[in-house]
Amino acid sequence: MSSSRRILAGVALAGGLVLGLGAAQAASPAAPAASAPAAHAASAQTAPPDGWPKWPASLPTPHLPSKHVTQFGYGSTPSAEQIAGWAIAVAPDGAGLPPGHGNVDDGGNIFSQKCAVCHGTFGEGEGNYPKLATGSASLKGIQPTLTVGNYWPFATTLWDYINRAMPFYLPHSLKPNEVYAITAYILNLNNVVPENFVADQHSLPLVKMPNRHGFIWHDPRPDTHDTECMHDCRQASAITITSTAEGKPLTPRTTGPLDEMQPK
Ligand code: HEC
């Protein structure tokens, strides 16, 4: 048999197994959902354990575990040191910021070496790379320009983001002092802190970002209050739209063609 025919035969068998399982489960609705992956399990036996779907007699005998699998036995428990390597999150209130400090001047030097190629020397953004600071940036209009200064609510999040994600080609490679210095520089570019600002774990949480109160922190949904109609409902075609968000400066996604609510 050529290898391509062998592959075809394998695919056909796999398809048959899936269909077969589906049918078996439909026939015994009380059966537990666990099913196909059991075919990979180690210990083999001839009949499915109690409570498993009946296996169609026409198919080859599957290999099933003798009891339900409760753990896979992969990997090993990480050490406290290994966990610490991943637990780098910094909270808005500054919890998680490590010791260290950095000033605006030093930040400017590091930024020009490691960041300016993409973000521009003064954060103005090269090409399509994100702008981190520009005087004229505005959140108004349907295509707002988001910068650190006009958008980000917390300076501590800037520290976290740079620490974990930048520079783009070598994330999480900066030392805490470097991240503090660059954070100070970017905040200064955005006129959020003065030139003599020193960023550290005490000063960053105190920085008041301009858009700090521009976010809605609670989830307003559901924001409609009609009860669902399940029977004798109005025909969609009989409903007229009296007002829409189209053309109003709400979100960029309100500019498409109006849905006439006609039956489709
Ligand atoms: C090779 C290009 C490149 C370099 C170099 C680079 N970045 Fe970035 N940066 C990006 C890209 C691309 C994004 C957008 C990533 C995304 O949205 O997932 C980004 C996003 C950011 C953002 C978030 C912008 C926002 O408002 O969403 C910050 C802050 C930032 N970079 C800081 C830095 C700093 C600081 C350095 C230097 C240590 C640096 N970047 C180096 C490409 C780069």
Q: Can you tell me about this structure?
A:
Residues 1-44 have low confidence and may be disordered. The chain is mainly alpha-helical and 264 residues long. The radius of gyration is 30 Å and the shape is flat. Helices cover 29% and strands 2% of the residues. The protein has a two-stranded antiparallel ribbon with strand order 1-2. Helix 3 (104-114) packs across helix 7 and helix 6 crosses helix 7 (176-189). Among the domains are: 15-66, no CATH class; 89-206, Cytochrome c-like domain (Cytochrome Bc1 Complex, Chain D, domain 2, Orthogonal Bundle). It has seven helices and two strands. The protein binds heme C (HEC).
What is the gist of this entry?
The chain has helices at residues 3-27, 80-86, 104-114, 116-119, 148-151, 155-165, 176-189, and strands at 101-103, 198-200.
Largest sheet: 2 strands, antiparallel
The fold-level CATH name of the domain at 89-206 is Cytochrome Bc1 Complex, Chain D, domain 2
Helix amount: 25-40%
CATH architecture of the domain at 89-206: Orthogonal Bundle
Q: How many beta strands in the DSSP annotation?
A: 2
- Which class best fits the helix and strand makeup? mainly alpha
Spatial arrangement of strands, main beta sheet: 1-2
- How far apart the termini lie comes to 51 Å
The chain-level mean pLDDT equals 79
- The CATH first-level class of the domain at 89-206 comes to Mainly Alpha
CATH superfamily of the domain at 89-206: Cytochrome c-like domain
Strand content: under 5%
Instruction: Tell me the overall shape.
Output: flat
